[in-house]
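Pyridoxamine 5'-phosphate oxidase family protein
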Amino acid sequence: MAEELKDKIYEYLSSHYYLNLATVSPQGRPMAHTMAYVSENAVTYLATNKNTRKVQNIMHNPYVAYTVDEDDPDWFNMQALQVEGKASIITGENELREVGEIMVAKFPVAADMPPDSDIIMIKIEPEVIYYLDYSIKFGHREQVNL
């Protein structure tokens, strides 16, 4: 069952485009950031400017959470992911190149963007993922620890 659930999660991540990233400021204030992302299995990658508040927050506290969900008014069909994990900045050239290829495959517009030395790539490695599927039962949630 756990492998089947992981496959559902991987498919859900690969078939969506945006997540809602939660970070905590050095002052302890929660912040939410809408981000385009790519994924490889359960690991997600985000490109952003190195001077953003989210990067400052991650440098101070690498523990993050995010959701990926539908924008559907029918509560009884809701599906979503709630993810808790640890973020890091990718610095290795090989990994950056590989993630860049995944990014261009999912978002072809990225291939036309000019190089920008202020853009960095964030990697989020999940520790726990909750898969919500209210079509099974209102409030239904399954957990996977990674």
